Amino acid sequence: MNLDVHHPQELRRRAFGAYIAIALLMGVLVFSFFRLQVLGSSTWELQAATNRLRTLPIPAPRGTIYDRNGRIVADNAPGYSITILPGPRDSVRATLERMAEYVELSDERMDELMATLRAYGREVVVDADADFAAVAALEERRGDFPGVYVDMRPRRRYQMDEAGGHVTGYVGEITAEELASDAFMAERYEPGMVVGKIGIERFYEDRLQGSPGVRYVEFDARGRIVGDFEGVEARPAEAGEDLYLNIDMELQEWIHRIFPDTLSGAVVALDPADGGVLALYSAPGYDPNAFVGGIADSTWIRLNTDEGKPLFDRSVLGLYAPASTWKLASAGIALDLGVVTPDETMPDPCTGSWYWGNRSWGCWDPAGHGYNNLAEAIGNSCDVYFYQLGLRIGLERLLDRSTEIGFSQQCGVDLPQESQGVFPEDPSYWVETYGYRPTQGEALNLSIGQGPNSQTPLKMAQFYVALARDGSAPPPRIAKGGPLGDGWELNLAPDHIASLREGLRMVTAPGGTAHFGTALEYWDVLGKTGTGQNPLSVRGLAEDHAWFAGLAGPPGEPPEIVVVAIVEYGRSGGQVAAPLVAKTADFYLRRKHGLPTDTIQTYLEHILTGPVPEWYRERFPPQSRVRTRRGPSLPIAAPTEPAWLRPPGRRDTIGGPGLADAGARRR
Amino acid sequence: MIRLFDRWTLDAPLVVSIMGLSLFGIAMIYSAGQVHVPNPVTAEAWVRQSVWFVIALVAFTVMSRIPLRWIEWAAVPSYVVSVVLLALTLVIGEGRGTAAGVKSWINLGFISFQPAEIAKLATVLALAQLLSQRSSALTSLRDLVAPSALVALPLVLVLRQPDLGTAMAFGGILFAMLYWAATPVWLLLLVASPVFGLFLSAYPLVWSVYIVGVVGFLVLMRYRLFLFESVMVVLANFGTATIARPLWNSLAEYQRNRILVFLDPEVDPRGAGYQVIQSKVAVGSGGFEGQGFTLGSQKRLDFLPEQHTDFIFSVVGEELGFIGTAVAILTFSYVLVRLVRMAEDAGSEQPFAGLVLLGIFGAWLVHIFVNIGMTIGVVPITGIPLPFVSYGGTFLFMSWVAVAVAVRVANERP
To answer: Which helix (H) or strand (E) holds B260?
Structure first.
């Protein structure tokens, strides 16, 4: 290479350039060290040579959860946490033992804390929700507790208490298993953080969780906080995102109030407009606040041993035979497939039983229903009609279409857990489960809601949303936002829908089985009762489960709310479940339309507390009485007062003032 | 006696200052091992470093006697061998200690070494060979393809380990040597432009302005470059901007963190950011005079990360204060200046010598600036050792071999 091709001075110039580069880069270094060591030394120096600089997390407040009306469902209250720093084993142990005097600390908990300290080598939260007395005691004796510090920490607070525990879920300190799992990304989660454990808190953990801040704190050699370090500014915590629910908190609380105290079950209310979950109630419930900051052992044992299984969310986990409420699914599928028209009657009249395939198939009512069209068959819940309908659909098609609707899957609701419905997807189910090939006779059973068919209350509610709409049903969704999935669709013409609803109307019209408990002053209620057999009731050891699935809205307009209620061992859908549905719908619709709410809502409640109300004669004139084919309609005898209406144990089932007051008010 | 010394060192000012740095390093490694809770590995590190120092001096003595012609002859084979070793490292490489994730060691059973250290010197020699054989200056981008490819090969292999710091050293070698080969500076900047673009692409708006600037510059320079070359520069810029995200995703978690932390030290205040802060606390508490040799409190409490290797300079800062850091930096500056001076003296008659010296200069400049800079957050943490001072056998040995080559090529007159 000949460098002389350039200017003769090229080498010298290049060397000079290199010197400049050295001077610049090294100058930057010297200057930076000068600034840090000479000018800024005091801010970077620790106050004592043996002190140590530590980073401590500033816990981030979780996002607030609001209901559909902007009311707070879950927020944060100020709380205290007690944290201990790692140190020599013996001294940490001794410190913990001294602390046990003021804070509830079992031996196992101490072992656990020691193990965590060893595993992570960083501070560990001893008590995420310490009470003020303990905090004050520790602060007074700070010298006795090296490496222990008390921190302000947001404490989760749930406004609905027991009424909404199953929906909101609760938070708790992250466990080692959770930390190791993929669900909690290592970059984001650290030991000691509080995370959603179940319910909405768990499902929307990503959004609700904020990012913790960091402060730099100087500790002395004995592990006591000397003060915040000047050299680096603390980074404030960022609160998590707020969450807005479709849930109507007051409706949820209302359901909690009216649900029979001693019974178990679930109530699901959906908004047919978008599948939004208005209420998701499971009884008995639990108070999520009890879990915040670690649940007391006694509470935990009580919740787990309670016969009512309060931790079990019946609305999405409970699987029940849908019984007659499922007849609407048979009807919808039959209309969708075009195997029946709304007006035709089945060739064989109902005589209380029907002979097919070498055996007799009974109707629930041995008196029989005669010739029924579709609406009447629904109104009468006529089994014989539906046997014939099931044969027309055929087993294969019934299974295919039901699978498509999702009766063997989950709804896909935004909760971390949901039971899968039980329903055969194809005939091989019988082979695998029972060891025989199914005959068409299985279609007879399935079409009336019996056979291998168990559904969650939420799934049945989703199906009834399709009846309240045009045959399509979006997946139910608890938090506001776009659709969670495609949902599914039944191909139903407007007159099909009208006919199905007419059938539902016959159930709640005067003369219908659920009339008294569902007749409301302002709203039309349509619905279907169901009597679900269960292992105990089959053996005569308990009552059947009571179902009611209803649609409600202003008269002459599309339904605005779908409510499904199941009361375990509640015997009859019409008596126990139907009034729950009507009272739920009434409460919601009155508030939605700006009407004052009342605790005396159904016709039944009115006549039990006073005279027949004016509105009843206007809304249900005598000619509106349903006439069934088999002759006289059901007598309007004064119904007996159901057990659940009888007032109050701990809580007044009907409402604050109680029945006596309500009666007095009417005079 | 003095003449004997001169004849041994061949270049007394360079060798003496580097010997000083090496002894200083051993002293600091000794100090770094003096902690409250003794750790036998780090406490004895200074002994092993001393042994390596002796071995390195022997190597220096032998290597500095090798005739220049042999060195020239060995350039290409040693390059080939080291590239093969680097490729092998990707397969059978092992991690060590705190950098266990970086597979940069080859274990021969009786000895372990880092092929990347050998590759640096071999690449310097091979590139010097390539550039010194040219009969004309490098004036077009096309002229830069071969030299760039020669360095890119080991660079990419090192990056795959993944060892970002050493890869940067290869970049330093390439640019310093091209610079010395009289490549116009604007051309060097064009070559480097895709790398700038890579980082700028994180901010699309800034990148847009930048690419317009690059294109504008190419239009200005249209008579100095072939159209094809200009198009290639623009394409390369778009290329790096396109691969930026996949490349980012391919980086290991800790590498991403280090870059993020450099851009915003508070991004990961409990991880990588914490190291910088601890280091700054140590250096800052050193003050003007320092806390005294072996007396650094942060160091004694073992709060400093990797305090005998990558963060040895934090110990210097804490114990010897600004006086110590300034003297050390000035000594390094002198070594760098001396290398350039020797290259200048070699003149245009000995292009190979000058290029080798500038190659060594380029590698060391990167090592020194990045290592010292990262202890106080001036550059991102890249895990790159400080020549002659950081603990590490292969590194010390190969650095001294480089010194031997430097004094040899500079002192053999044709």
So the answer is: helix B253-263
pLDDT tens readout for residues A459-508: 999 999 999 998 888 999 999 987 778 888 888 888 888 888 988 998 88
Residue B180: enclosing H or E segment and its boundaries?
Answer: helix B164-180
Nearest CA distance, A151 vs chain B (angstrom): 18
- Give the residue from chain A lying closest to B354, CA to CA: A11
Over 60: is that where the pLDDT of B374 sits? Answer: yes
CB A174 within 8 A of CB A184: yes
Chain A residue numbers with beta carbons less than 8 Å from the beta carbon of B253 are 187
Q: Name B115's Cβ contacts closer than 8 Å, sequence gap at least 6.
A: B82, B85, B86, B88, B89, B104, B106
**pLDDT exceeds cutoff 80 at A230:** no
> Are B344 and A15 a contacting pair at CB < 8 A?
yes
Architecture of the structural domain at A249-624: 3-Layer(aba) Sandwich (3.40)
Within 10 angstroms of residue A481's Cβ, the number of other Cβ atoms is 13
Whether the per-residue pLDDT at A631 is higher than 60: the answer is no
CA-closest candidate to residue A53, choices A216, A213, A212, A214: A216
CB B409, CB B356: distance < 8 Å? yes
b/e A312-346 (16+ beta carbons within 10 angstroms → b): ebbbbbbbbbbbbbbbbbbbbbbbbbeebebeebb
Count of structural domains within chain B: 1
pLDDT at residue number A323: 87
Residue A171 to residue A168: CA distance in whole angstroms: 9
* Spatial distance between the Cα atoms of A235 and B369, rounded to a whole number of angstroms: 29
Q: A351-398, pLDDT tens digit by residue? A: 888 888 888 888 888 888 889 888 889 988 899 999 999 999 989 899
The average pLDDT across A307-326 equals: 91
* Mutate: best of A5, A14, A42, A193, partner B, most B CBs <10 A: A14
Residue B331 has pLDDT above 90, yes or no: yes
C-beta of residue A445 within 8 angstroms of C-beta of residue A386? no
Which residues does chain B have within 8 Å of residue A46's beta carbon, measured at their own beta carbons?
Answer: 281, 285, 297-298
The 10s digit of each residue's pLDDT in A242-269 is: 999 999 999 999 999 999 888 999 999 9
Edge-first strand listing for the sheet containing A213-219: A52-58, A213-219, A225-228
In angstroms, the separation between the Cα of residue A122 and the nearest Cα of chain B is 11
Measured distance CA(A208)–CA(A225) in Å, rounded: 31
Q: At what angle do helices B185-200 and B164-180 cross, to 10 degrees?
A: 160
> Quick one: A123 exposed, middle or buried, by C-beta within 10 A (0-12, 13-18, 19+)?
buried
Could you tell me if A249 and A226 are in contact, meaning their C-beta atoms sit under 8 angstroms apart?
no
Domain A52-244 annotated CATH 3.90.1310.10: yes
Element (H, E) at A524: strand A524-532
Q: How near does any CA of chain A get to the CA of B335, in Å?
A: 10
* Domain positions in chain A: 52-244, 249-624
Given a cut of 80, whether residue A648 has pLDDT beyond it is: no
Range of the domain at B240: 2-411
B184 pLDDT band, cuts 50/70/90, is confident
- Tell me the C-alpha to C-alpha distance, in Å, between residue A200 and each of A129, A255, B59, B94: 21, 19, 69, 46
Q: What is the average per-residue pLDDT within B18-27?
A: 96
Q: Model-level pTM?
A: 0.70
Cα Rg, chain A, nearest whole Å? 33
- Cβ distance B340 to A22 less than 8 Å, yes or no, reads yes
Backbone angles phi, psi at A558, to 5 degrees: -60, 150
The percent of residues in chain B predicted with pLDDT above 70, rounded, is 93
Secondary structure string (H, E, C) spanning A598-619: CCCCCHHHHHHHCCCCHHHHHH
CA distances from residue A506 to A375, A387, A510, A593, B396 in whole angstroms, order as listed: 8, 20, 8, 26, 95
